[in-house]
């Protein structure tokens, strides 16, 4: 399947899911985000970037269907190096 057909297929799939969504506000949110996002990236020409965006849309669609939450999953940026257990600070006083 050509990339153009993949993009159209993904766009229509998302709109189909939006039409079947129960909550009217979320239904409109899905439609608006879909239209705005596809419009934003309509001029992409790099095949790798297009494939990446298709995969991102597919993953979000699957998450929305599975968890019944149409919004993007929050990403937490935890810096594990800055988090130290409280007992590490006291190790120097053991001897």
UniProtKB/TrEMBL annotation:
Gene Ontology annotations for the cellular component aspect, listed alphabetically: mitochondrion
**Which domain of life does the UniProt lineage start with?**
Eukaryota
Bilayer-crossing residues are none
Q: Which InterPro entries match?
A: Complex1_LYR_dom (IPR008011), Complex1_LYR_LYRM1 (IPR045294), LYRM1 (IPR040330)
Q: Which Pfam families match?
A: Complex1_LYR (PF05347)
**CDD domains, per the entry:** Complex1_LYR_LYRM1
**Ranges of residues in domain Complex 1 LYR protein:** 5-61
Which protein family is named in the record? Belongs to the complex I LYR family.
Q: What is this protein called?
A: LYR motif-containing protein 1
Q: What is the lineage of its organism?
A: Eukaryota, Amoebozoa, Evosea, Eumycetozoa, Dictyostelia
């Amino acid at each position: 399947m050509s990339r153009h057909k993949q993009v159209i297929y993904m766009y229509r799939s998302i709109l189909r899911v939006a039409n079947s969504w129960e909550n009217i506000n979320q239904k409109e949110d899905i439609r608006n985000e879909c239209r705005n996002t596809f419009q934003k990236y309509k001029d992409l020409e790099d095949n790798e970037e297009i494939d990446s965006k298709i995969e991102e849309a597919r993953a979000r669609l699957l998450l929305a269907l599975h968890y019944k939450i149409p919004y993007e999953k929050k990403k937490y940026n935890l810096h594990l190096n800055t988090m130290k257990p409280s007992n590490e600070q006291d190790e120097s006083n053991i001897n």
